[in-house]
Design brief:
Elements (H helix, E strand, L loop, with lengths): L8 E4 L2 E11 L8 E8 L5 E7 L8 E13 L4 E6 L4 E6 L12 E10 L2 E11 L1
Antiparallel strand pairs: 1-2, 2-3, 3-4, 5-6, 5-8, 6-7, 8-9
Length: 130
């Protein structure tokens, strides 16, 4: 726990988060020091909080960001289609932060891929007109 710093990424309350604040409390009479770790969820942007003991091992998060060429968008279902060169196929994801701005036929999609333990979640963080 001592190696964690503000800006590191770890799992808090079952969500991958970026650490925003760490507060250490002194050990009690029969206990260990505790860490109150707060962070912002990478999936929904909400603040998460969890208490750890000094001996606990945090679950770290791996984040990758990739940019793809968009191939289509369904505004009603908030879905964006794009071609994934790594997978060699067309994929589709929900864009939860969608604005009602019209997109041209060609646009770029930035996808944030978040991995921790056996979980993998992907979220579109940005769509840009080319």
């Amino acid at each position: 726990m001592n190696a964690l710093r503000k800006g590191h990424k770890m799992v808090l309350d079952s969500h991958p988060c970026t650490i925003t604040h760490i507060e250490k409390s002194a050990p009690g009479k029969h206990g260990h020091a505790q860490y109150n770790v707060m962070g912002k969820s990478l999936l929904d942007g909400k603040t998460k909080n969890e208490l750890f003991k000094h001996k606990d091992k945090p679950v770290l998060v791996e984040v990758t960001v990739k940019t793809f060429m968009g191939t289509g968008m369904d505004v009603e279902d908030n879905r964006v289609s794009f071609f994934d060169d790594d997978a060699g196929r067309e994929r589709e994801l929900v864009w939860v932060h969608q604005e009602n701005s019209p997109l041209s036929d060609t646009f770029s999609v930035t996808v944030r891929c978040v991995k921790w333990l056996d979980n993998q979640d992907e979220q579109i963080i940005d769509v840009k007109n080319d």
